[in-house]
Specification:
By secondary structure, this protein is mainly alpha-helical. The protein is built from 14 helices and three strands. It has one domain. Helix 1 packs parallel to helix 13, helix 3 packs parallel to helix 5 and helix 4 runs parallel beside helix 13.
Length: 406
C-alpha cells in the first residue's frame, strides 16, 4: 500500500529524488506484522466466536492486550500513507500526485469490493460487502487528491478539525436504510445496511480517516523541508505531546470518546477500561493513543533497526501484496481447521456476515497460545514470498509502473 512510486505523468522537469526514509517502511512493516495477529485471532481463536475481546466482563488481560495492540495498525498506516504521498509529491509534483492518489484510491475501492471481500468471506456471489480498511484508504486517497495543492497550514487546520471535532457528531443518528442513512454512516456511524439482494456493512466511517491521512500529508512537509535533526526533534516532541494529550483528555473523561472509562471491580480492569477507546470511527482519544507512540518510533528509527530492520523493510515495502496474500492464506487454513475439528468446511465459506458473527461457528476455535504460534508461522511463511516480490518490484518498477498499485 505504499505510495512512494508511480509513473511520471507531469510535463514539468522531474524534481530531485531524496533518499528513501527507511523508518517509514520499518514502521509500516511492523504494523503489517501486528495486523496479522488480529486476523489470526478472528479466524482461529475460540473466544472470538463468543464475545468481543474488549468486553471487560468476559475478557482476560492477555486477550485484551492481543486486541488492543492491533489498534495501532490502521491509524498509523493511514497516517504513513499521507506522509508517503507528500514524499511522492516532492519527487513528482502536484499534478502527478493528484492523479496517482485518485487512481490508486479508485483501485483500492475496487479491490475492497471484489478481491478483498471474497478473501474475507469466500462468498463469490457478492451478497455481502464489508467496507473496511482498504475502502477507507481508497476514499481517503481520493479526498487527498483534491487537497494536494492546499497550503500546509490549511491542511493542518482541516486535520485538526476532523480528528478533534468529529466526536461532536457522536449523538447524531439517521435511522432507516435509505440514502440519507447510508450517507451518514459513510461519514461517521458504523452500521449495516440490508437490501433484498445483499448486505452492506459500513465498517470504517470516513471522516477521521481522512483527517489522519491529511495529518500525515502535513507532517510529510517536515520530511521534505527540514533537516534530519530538526525533523527528528519535531516528530518526537509531537509524539510525546499526543501521548500526554491522550492521558489528559482521557483522565478528564468528558470529551473525545463516546465511551468514557469507568471504575471497575479491581485496579487492573479499571486500567483496561482507561485504554478501551473507540476505533469505529476512531475517536480523538484513539488517535492520540495510537499515533503518538508511532511518531516516537519514527523518531528513533531514522537509522535502520539492527537485525530486525531488514525484515520490517521487506514487509513495509510490500504491504498491499502482503495484505492480499495473507487474507486468502488465513481463510484457507481456517476452512481446513473448521473441517478437521468437526464444524464443517461449509461454515467457513460463502459467509454472509463477518466470520466471528457466524452462529454456526460457536464452539469452533483454539487457544490463544495456538493463535500466537500460528501468527508467527504465517509471518515466517510469507517472508520469503514478500522478499521475492520486493526484489522483483524494485527491479521492474520503471518498466512496469503498474507495480506501484500493488
Amino acid at each position: 500500500m505504499s505510495t512512494t512510486a508511480a509513473p511520471y505523468l507531469s510535463t514539468s522537469p522531474p524534481r530531485a529524488v531524496s533518499p528513501r526514509i527507511e523508518s517509514i517502511d520499518q514502521l509500516r512493516g511492523l504494523i503489517m506484522i501486528i495486523m496479522v495477529l488480529d486476523h489470526v485471532r478472528d479466524f482461529f481463536h475460540a473466544d472470538a466466536y463468543l464475545f468481543n475481546p474488549t468486553d471487560l466482563s468476559k475478557t482476560s488481560v492477555f486477550l485484551f492486550f492481543t486486541r488492543w495492540i492491533t489498534h495501532f495498525c490502521a491509524p498509523l498506516f493511514m497516517f504513513l500513507s499521507g506522509v508517503s504521498a507528500r514524499l511522492y509529491n516532492k519527487k513528482k509534483g502536484d499534478s502527478a500526485t493528484s492523479f496517482f492518489l485518485l487512481t490508486r484510491g479508485a483501485w483500492l475501492i475496487f479491490l475492497e469490493l471484489t478481491v478483498v471481500s471474497i478473501g474475507w468471506t469466500f462468498n463469490v456471489h457478492f451478497t455481502i460487502y464489508i467496507l473496511q480498511v482498504i475502502w477507507a484508504f481508497g476514499v481517503s486517497m481520493i479526498a487527498l487528491a483534491v487537497l494536494v495543492r492546499a497550503r500546509p497550514s490549511y491542511l493542518l487546520l482541516l486535520a485538526i478539525a476532523l480528528l478533534a471535532g468529529h466526536n461532536l457528531l457522536d449523538h447524531i443518528h439517521v435511522n432507516g436504510d435509505g440514502p440519507a442513512a447510508f450517507g451518514w454512516a459513510f461519514l461517521h456511524e458504523q452500521r449495516p445496511f440490508f437490501h433484498k439482494a445483499f448486505m452492506c456493512f459500513v465498517g470504517y466511517p470516513i471522516l477521521p480517516w481522512i483527517g489522519l491521512m491529511v495529518l500525515g500529508y502535513y507532517i510529510g512537509t517536515w520530511y521534505t523541508n527540514l533537516s534530519k535533526d530538526i525533523r527528528i526533534k519535531r516528530v518526537r516532541l509531537l509524539g510525546w505531546a499526543m501521548i500526554g494529550g491522550f492521558i489528559s483528555v482521557r483522565l478528564i473523561n468528558v470529551y473525545g470518546d463516546p465511551h468514557p472509562w469507568t471504575v471497575q471491580s479491581n485496579t487492573t480492569l479499571t486500567l483496561l477500561s482507561f485504554f478501551n477507546v473507540t476505533k469505529y470511527p476512531p475517536s480523538l482519544q484513539y488517535v492520540l493513543m495510537t499515533v503518538g507512540p508511532g511518531l516516537i518510533f519514527l523518531s528513533y528509527t531514522e537509522k535502520k533497526i539492527e537485525g530486525a530492520g531488514d525484515y520490517l523493510l521487506v514487509f513495509g515495502r510490500t504491504a498491499m501484496f502482503f495484505y492480499l496474500i495473507h487474507i486468502y492464506l488465513l481463510h484457507t487454513l481456517a476452512v481446513i481447521a473448521s473441517a478437521v475439528t468437526g464444524h464443517g468446511a461449509a461454515n467457513m465459506t460463502a459467509l454472509t456476515t463477518w466470520v466471528t458473527d457466524n452462529p454456526q461457528l460457536k464452539g469452533y476455535g483454539f487457544s490463544l497460545g495456538i493463535v500466537y504460534g500460528l501468527w508467527m508461522l504465517i509471518i515466517i511463511v510469507l517472508y520469503p514470498l514478500c522478499k521475492w516480490y520486493d526484489k522483483y518490484k524494485r527491479a521492474n518498477l520503471t518498466e512496469r509502473p503498474w507495480l506501484s498499485y500493488l
